[in-house]
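Q: Could you fold this chain for me?
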Amino acid sequence: MKALVIFAHPRKESFSHALLERVTSTLNEKQYDVTVRDLYAMDFNPILDSEDTIHIEGDQFVRESNHYPPDVQIEMSHLLENDLYIFIFPSWWNGMPAIMKGYIDRVCQHGFFYSFEDKTVADQFKGKRALFFTPTGQPQMINGEENPLTAAMRTVTSGWLFNANAIDVIDHTFYGRVPYMSRDELELYLQDAEEKIRAL
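A: Sure. Below is the predicted structure, expressed as structure tokens.
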């Protein structure tokens, strides 16, 4: 089994980075072939250029460029070669870090990741699964109910990302109040993530 971990956080001292280490070490213990794409370490360019955007001409979706940029082609190859995708990114302003959103914009493109015109495009992702982990500073429960911001974030991240292909989203876990937690409390979060990986 091959796992692709797509990670976004600039600080190696962060809880997100500790989460990355725990997730990848557990995957390795389970004998997964693991590839990590650390977007900040890669200095990934998140900017979608005009020639790579799709637009409509005569009821057809078109791109000015006939080829995807070389760095994007590399990421596309990783997506095709792996069976399991794990996204790890913090909540910043109730959304993905810009570099992660840029990864989605540039890599998960029409004609590769989904298509409004060719239904066979989505078929190359059949049987693939995805798992999301998002540390955040917000509490996850308010008056005994899930924080509505969490539900909104889930909808616009893991909820919409694969709605045009057959990738199965296993779960999207949020770890709340991270900046305010003790090391022992954060360790419980790491153990939870480890258990979720072991349960795959």
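A (continued): The helical segments are 15-29, 39-42, 70-81, 98-107, 120-123, 148-156, 158-161, 183-198.
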